[in-house]
Amino acid sequence: MAYILVVEDEKSINDLIAMNLSLVGHTSNQAYDGNEALDLLQQNTYDLVIMDIMLPEIDGYSLMQFVPEESPVIFLTARGNLSDRVKGLNLGADDYIVKPFETVELLARIQAVLRRTHRSPGIFSVDGTVVNLESRTVTVEGCEIELTLREYELLEVLIQNKNVALSREKLLKIAWDYDYLGETRTVDVHIQKLRQKLRWNNRIKTVYKLGYRLEVDD
C-alpha cells in the first residue's frame, strides 16, 4: 500500500490518522511541526503527504515548496475560508479537507488521490476474490461475478475502509450519498448479497449494534 507522511501538531489527531492508515494497510511517518516535517521530506519519498496548515516553526503553505512534485498533498486544516482553499489548491495541493472531519471521509479522499496519481495498486484480493478497482470488475476463483451498481459501491467503501467498523448510517451516506432517515435495512440486504456472491461470510463481520467491518489479515 502507500507510504504516507502525516504532518499535524495536535498529537491526538495525528495519532488517530496514523492508526487508521495502519488499519487499512498503509505505512506512515508522523511529524508534529514544520521543521520535523522538512527533515522527513528530505530523507524520504512519500506516496502522499497529509498536512495541516497552521503548524509550529514552518507552516503548511511554506512547506509546499519542499514537497516533491511527484508526492500529492492533502491539506487537513481548520481554515475553511474560500480564500484559504483556493490558496492551498493553487499551491499544488490535490485535496483540501476542513476540520472537524470524518475518518471514513478522509480515508475515501486518500484512496481517491492515490488512485488519481497511480499510487494505489488498484487490485484487492482475498480468499480467491479479486476486485479490480480500476475496471470495476470482480472475479471469484477466476470467474467474473456480476454486481449491481449499489452492490459494487458498497463493496468499494468496505475495501477502502477494511478493518474499520462502519455504521449502517455511514455506509448509506458514503456509498450512496443517502441521508439517514431511520431506515437502514437496505444496507443489510446488500451486505447479505455481497457475502453470498463473494463467499465472504467470514470476511464481512457484523459489528453488534453498529454495522459492518471487512476483516482482512495484515
From TrEMBL:
Entry keyword Signal: no
SUPFAM superfamilies in alphabetical order: C-terminal effector domain of the bipartite response regulators, CheY-like
Highest taxon listed in the record's lineage: Bacteria
Matches recorded under Pfam families: Response_reg, Trans_reg_C
Keywords from the named record: DNA-binding, Phosphoprotein, Transcription, Transcription regulation, Two-component regulatory system
Modified residues (4-aspartylphosphate): D52
UniProt domain OmpR/PhoB-type: residue ranges: 121-216
UniProt DNA-binding region: 121-216
Domain Response regulatory: 3-114
Protein name per its UniProtKB record: Response regulator transcription factor
Organism of origin: Alicyclobacillus fodiniaquatilis
